Amino acid sequence: MTDSLVRAPETDRTHATPEQYAERYARSLSDNDAFWLEEARRLDWVTAPSKAGNWSYDPVDIRWYDDGVLNLCHNALDRHLDARGEKVALHFEPDDPESEARTLTYRELHREVVRIANALKAIGVKKGDRVTIYMPMIPEGTAAMLACARIGAIHSVVFGGFSPEALAGRIADCESRFVITADGGLRGGKPVPLKDNVDAALERPGAGVEAVLVVRHTGCEVNWTEGRDFWLADKANDADCPCEEMKAEDPLFILYTSGSTGKPKGVLHTTGGYGVWAALTFHYVFDVRPEDIFWCTADIGWITGHSYVAYGPLLNGASQVIFEGVPNYPDAGRFWDVVDKYGVSIFYTAPTAIRALMREGDGPVTSRDRSSLRLLGTVGEPINPEAWRWYHEVVGSGRCPIVDTWWQTETGGIMITTLPGAHDMKPGAAGKALFGVEPVLVDGEGKLLEGAAEGNLCMARSWPGQARTVYGDHQRFVDTYFSTFPGRYFSGDGCRRDEDGYHWITGRVDDVINVSGHRMGTAEVESALVLHPTVAEAAVVGYPHDIKGQGIYCFVTLVAGEEPDDALERELKAQVRSEIGPIATPDLIHFTPALPKTRSGKIMRRILRKIAENDYDSLGDTSTLADPGVVDALIAGRRNR
Ligand code: WT7
Questions:
Q1: Which of 98, 123, 142, 539 would bridge 211 by S-S if both were Cys, CB 3.0 to 4.6 A apart?
Q2: Is the dihedral of CA 177, 130, 491, 4 positive or negative?
Q3: Across-strand partners of 269?
Q4: Which residues take part in binding Mg(2+) (predicted)?
């Protein structure tokens, strides 16, 4: 197949020509240790590492820069103060464009971080303690993460859109005894009751904490538990707060992510390797120059917000925008208003946002200037070529290269992309491996596929930003990522590699779906549904959705004697929202008398996926079903999109 090429613009060859990329890439594999020791010099070390990689995939034991000592908060802030203390670190754009925007220089952000770090110490946080951060997208969110890094506490950021139930589970799992939150948040003009949610979460078993630090933000009323709750302003102070000396392999953060089975996993990243990886990927992929204004629209509750809001830009001394709001408030031109207001030159967002804005037409884009933009990026899910072209031609006026960056919570940073200037682009393809990354494709039996091929996307070798374990459950880490194809890291994604070596991600091959760029375990949604007393069984699959990429389709059987109706459907949707959060709200609920099962009782999801996709002609072999008649009943009851 010939894939349409979009040429790399000549003007953008700052960091890597095609030849430079090829040469550096070859060396990054052939002389791996030397390459990574050199790259480690991007950071300041208290003790420089003498060796880079020290890892094995069998048994699974991953270490990088083992004997190095450093602090990432020092690297993100302190070390910049002499040379660029007065440079803008953050432009904060609030949800309401009429509210006051705030700009923090590196010196001001440093001061804020020291104040929060002192507050953390004052409430009893010590090195190695887990601290849960449940915040809106305000400067204090990023500052709280860096404050943890400064004193050696392990942050666990929980997305502010998650429910109290989901928050409670994440507090209990890592035995976090401290929470940092805000009184409330604002998104699209609507209040988010963050402190109330924390209060509710802390009533759940196993989720009691010692102290809650509350940032005053919206000024909304909150309930108060004396002795447990503290205003940040009352605990913060400017006392000297030196950076804790951390070993490279000391944990930096835990971030929960969904898998195909069970509860969300606490993916653990460590200090040295993650720091080098976040710094390097930001530098190369976004081709950053001193005068750039970078804007990544992700929330700090996701890995994208960790690596490309909190760490990557600040480790590189870059200026960035952080945005509290949503793309369509007060109108569909908001992103471009913000681009113009701050002169954003590099813009990084998700395909789902692009598709939603594309639907509003070109007007809200072309009515804004956008001439500051020079590079665009996407992340989170495959981008359909139509949306890619709109992004390129309308948003970028055909001038800006696009980097379609494939990576995961577990990879810590970008793994596969084109490099701006170095590579021609193919709309819909992520591109090539970044330095030190060795993607391979294997078939279902684990056989290596050469050349142009389609298969399961694995990594043949470790890289510094790789997750080290699942917090508290190393066996689960081993089972999830290293047991399907022994000796390799398995991403869970399917992928086609074309004759030019470009990677086309075809989506998850496990029971994980991707809803608006967010990973959702179908098992989690099923567990939430069966908590309802009328539900006997539930099976959840994804289906193509114009805006979200994938929508959530739920097949539900009821206990004997119960009849489905609209009220029950609403109740079930509400149940999932309260168990997980609004992002998990089912799109379609399909009540059915029975699910298709094999004679041994296993649900045949393959058939459910086809029905959800409206694809009845290729249901495949249904002869192994215990009751083939179930399929006709399911087709007859198909819910319309
Ligand atoms: C899954 C990881 C990486 C930060 C956001 C999501 C999908 C991610 C792309 C892309 C095609 C992509 C994959 C991956 N994905 N980026 N550019 N093209 N698919 O992080 O929640 O850990 O999800 O997102 O399926 O496995 P995550």
A1: 123
A2: positive
A3: 253
A4: 530, 532, 535
* Cα 145 to ligand 1 centroid, rounded to whole Å: 23
Distance 101 CA to ligand 1 centre (A): 31
Where does the pLDDT of residue 169 fall: very low under 50, low under 70, confident under 90, or very high at 90 and above? very high
The second-level CATH assignment, the architecture, of 516-637 is: 2-Layer Sandwich (3.30)
Q: What is the CATH number of domain 1-86+329-509?
A: 3.40.50.12780
CB of 382 closer than 8 Å to CB of 503: no
Q: Which residue is listed with tokens 């709109």?
A: 390
Pocket lining: 519 vs ligand 1, CB cutoff 6 Å: yes
- 89-136 pLDDT per residue, tens: 999 999 999 999 999 999 999 999 999 999 999 999 999 999 999 999
Give the distance (Å) from ligand 1 centre to CA of residue 379. Answer: 6
Indicate if ligand 1 lies below 6 Å from the C-beta of 267.
Answer: no
Predicted ipTM beyond 0.95: yes
Q: What is the separation of C-alpha 18 from the centre of its chain, rounded to a whole number of angstroms?
A: 29
Q: For the chain, what are the domain ranges?
A: 1-86+329-509, 516-637
> Binding residue per annotation — 577?
yes
Q: Do domains 1-86+329-509 and 516-637 have the same CATH topology?
A: no
Distance 533 CA to ligand 1 centre (A): 35
Q: Counting runs of H as helices and runs of E as strands, what totals does the chain give? A: 21, 33
- Nearest-atom number in ligand 1 for the CA of 405 is 17
With a cut of 90, say whether residue 2 has pLDDT above it.
Answer: no
